[in-house]
Every structure is written in structure tokens, then in C-alpha cells.
Amino acid sequence: MGPAKRLVVVVLFDRIDLLDVTGPPEVFALLRRELGADSGYEVVLAAATMDPVRTSAGVRVLPDATFEEVARRSIDTLIVPGSVELDDAKRVRAIAEPVVVAWVRRLAGRTRRLASVCVGAHVLAAAGLLEGRRATTHWSTAAQLAAEHPEVEVDADPIFIRDGDVWTGAGLTACLDLSLALVADDFGEELALRVARQLVMFLKRPSGQSQFSVSLAPVSTTRRVDVLRHFITRHLAEPLTVERLAAEAHVSERQLTRIFKSELGMTPRAYIESARVEAARNRLETTDDTLERVASACGFGTTDTLVRAFRRVLDTTPTAYRDRFRLT
Hints:
Blueprint: E1 6-11, H1 18-35, E2 41-47, E3 53-54, E4 60-61, E5 65-66, H2 67-70, E6 75-80, E7 83-86, E8 92-95, H3 98-108, E9 111-116, H4 121-126, E10 134-135, H5 142-148, E11 153-154, E12 160-163, E13 166-169, H6 174-187, H7 189-198, H8 223-234, H9 242-249, H10 253-264, H11 268-286, H12 291-297, H13 303-314, H14 318-325
Parallel strand pairs: 1-2, 1-6, 2-5, 6-9, 9-13, 10-11
Antiparallel strand pairs: 3-4, 7-8, 12-13
């Protein structure tokens, strides 16, 4: 009789995001291919009943078991996807159905490791499983998670976070990164990287990689700030002081700072640094420019300033970033 399999339960419910459901099992299946043998994972899709579950994509998924059935077993990893709806103002809102929350709370008591993908963190939080923990979710619902669950330390930036035996992932495709991290935790980095190559992911992304892009930051409600954002992008290589931006916007420096904090949630200096780091990331990914040239073109001036900014914003160095994310 061989060793017991690791039971991985993926929670199903109506309007769930399809990729959240299919992504993790695909990673575990590719692990079997790389090993040339059974990976030791038993993946089970569980729902309240055995009726087909309709995903947000309209595709129906058949459960393998009910929550009641898997509740009788020891679960290695419980993966909790999420679902969203649009409110009256057309804003994305995460849903945490009470019945699903109750089952997740119950199943967590029989689970070694919890993992949420995308907005599934809202379900974990509603079940009281993120209290006092650091967690992430899709950037579009991070403010909602923080507002509804102040007991959770929400960090909207990383693509996934591990806090003890609880893992939380960010946007949809980050479910692949989180699943690869689970594989690395169980089998080591080398095998996880081999699986990443099978997925045609050039490299497995570290948890610290940001899910944000300055260019994809929420659109300002003030045209003046949008004009300034474009101005900053066009003049990154030049000195960009608060004084210069205030003059460009025809406001005082104090008023400019208030506007940026209100509209973008950060100071002008922090925004400028983020914009420069993003421009540098793009050059590191797509060009052979030296660090000196990248620093100059993006307005850092010196490589030391570039390195300090990368450590501060991305918790890595420019060289390490290029090694991981260079497009070939």
C-alpha cells in the first residue's frame, strides 16, 4: 500500500470564476507529467450538491463530491475561489455567500493548508480565517476587503501572500503562480520551475511581484490629475519635483499633495517613483540596456538610486528582476 495522497479540495459554487477552478488542477496535473509518476495529489471539486455549478463564464462544472462527503476526510489543501458582481454604480464587488462561508469554516477545521485564489480571500475573511493575518486579493476588491474586514492586514500589491498555513492569491492568472508556489512548498523549486515551463510561463513569479501597473491604476475623477499623470509619464527622465508639478497644475504644493492622496492614494513623490520603477521594469524586461542607461532614461540619475527604488517598491534588485522576467 503506497503513501496516502494529498487531498486537494476546490470549493465550487454558482458564478464562480472558471479559471480559479481549472487553473490549480492543471498545475497539479502537469506536475504528474514532470515526475513521470503519480504526483500524490488527489484533486476533488466539491459543492453543496452534486448538481452542475454554473461559472461566471457560463460553463457548467460537475462536482466530484459534496461538502458533506469531503468533510469526513482529512484535507491537505483547501482551495477557495471567488465570485463577483457589479453594484448599481458598476463597481466590482466580491460575493461571500453565507452557506459557502459556513462550509469553508467547517472544512478549514479538517485542513492542513488553506488557499484562496482571486477574490476567494473575501470568503476566507468572512469565515474568520484571516483574522490577524496579512492577505491579498484582486486589486479591484482590495478596498472592499479592507473596509469589511479591518481585522485583516490587506496588502493589495503582491500576486500572492503566505501567512503561516494560509495562502491568498491576487488576480485571476495569479492562481497559477499560487499553485506553483504550493508545488514548490511540497516538492521544491526545481520541479515547480519545470511545471512553469510546461505552462509556458517563462519563469515562476515570486510572491513579491506586484499585480499593479501604474498605467492601470484607477482612473482619477479629476481631469487635472489625469493630465499630471500623462505629464509625468512624458517627462520621467527629467527632474520632477512637487514644485514643478504644482506649477503645471496651477495649485499650491500642499494642495497638490492633498489631491494626489485623495485621488490616487499616494503622495506625488511616491507616484513619480512608482512610474519610474514601472518604466525601468519595462526596459529591464524588453531591452539589453545597461543599468546606467535604464537609470538615466527613467529619471533615477544613478544606479544606486535605481537599486534603492526597486528594493523599496518591489523588494528586489534590478538585476534580480531582469533575471526573472526578461522576455526572450
